[in-house]
# Entry
Amino acid sequence: MLKKFASNLLPGFVLCLLCASQLQARDGYKIQLKFTDIKDSLVYLAHYYGKPLPTIYKTDSVKVDKNGVGVMQSKEKILGGIYMILLSDKKTYFDFLLDNGDEIGINITVKTLPQSLKYTGSQQNNDFIAYGEFLNGYGQKQEQISEGYKNAKNKADSAALEKQVKDAAKELYDYRENYIKSHPKALLAKIFSALELPQVPDGPHYTADGKVDSAFGYLYYKAHYWDGFDLRDDRLINTPLYDAKLDEYINKLTLQYEDSINKEGDWLLAKTRGTQELFKYTLWWLTNNAGNSKIMGMDGSYVHFVENYYMKGDATWLKPDELQQYITAARKIAPNVIGNVAPELKMKDVNGKEQSMHAIDAKYTLLVFWSPDCGHCQVELPKLDSTYKAVLKAKGVKVYAISTYDDEKMWKDFLKKNPGMQEWTNVWDPEHQSRFREQYNIYMTPIIYLLDDKKIIRGKQIDYSNIAGLIDMLERNKKTKSK
# Structure
């Protein structure tokens, strides 16, 4: 009898398990909204993407009825994260957590946001509200401490305030850590982990030879910077955290040299490879950060990321014409990246004689692209000439100056008005044979390159004011390497 009962029960039990599995695997979302103080109004579902406001991305909308009720629903799979309900004024909004498969009820009184928010079917969002309330109290403590510093009269007062700062920071850290331990798989726990910054162990710390290690704090902080951020969880892209993390790590913690940027960028891309959104955002961010950088040499990193990722098929989200824009830009930059041998130029001087740039025998060569009709050139070139006579000539510098304008009379008249420039090798290319614009990516003037004795590019897009300093740095580096 017992066996028969068990055998009859088993198919039903399996069916229940299948039904439960199907429920758990449900995609999309259902959000039931109940406003107490708005009606007949359009509201939007939106989410963050990598960075804070004002960059938001709308995904859904609904018109709440005369009773303030609206339902947003989708059966399409979504990527979880911090979402928001955005009102029709496009200014008023509140954040909440949404994950794939969620069914959430939200009661809202707009006049008293965020205090009025009440959630059903989502304990995680109630925890999110509780965290917001905790942060309000934390912020009030910080304001009190700031006021205390203004009124501090002695070291004892300052020491007491410093203890308050540490205690408050520990309280915040403990709040997040306790939640992470008790809800390890929750989206909010992932966000809390991503927010955490490395806690540098108290010192002093020593090097292997027994000296105080002054770099320990920086090195430890950098080495552990990404410990709490799950670079495999795409949901974190739908938060306002990642862009700021990238900016601090790449632009503040990493040495601003091409090799360092490339190394750290490659590491981040290796860590995010296999994800969809984090890898995409990381590659886009690294490439555009390098391309827009004002720091000399970062265009080499732009070329690095394009050649090693875009041109190898990793930017699968781009349309062919969009991909080609990156490739074209990189190809324009690649020949004149710092560390490469400068492409040879052969052009005619004022007497019609061909002059080879590579044939110039000099410790350093300034490659100057300018135009006699350029207002900025008219100001900068006389200053460059003065600097050349006063400082640069003595450092073994010679100048190869290319007029980018095709008007011979304007070019020669300018040289007559600035006779000091006649010491330079002045050339132009009326027949457009040299391809200097493509070779050196000349899209504006003046543009100045610094080449060493082997015609290797050592500086680019510099001006008269920093050439001498760059040469001095290069000379110091030579001496250091020779020791």
About this structure: Residues 1-23 have pLDDT under 50 and may be disordered. The domain at 346-482 is CATH 3.40.30.10 (Glutaredoxin). The first strand starts at residue 29 and ends at 35.
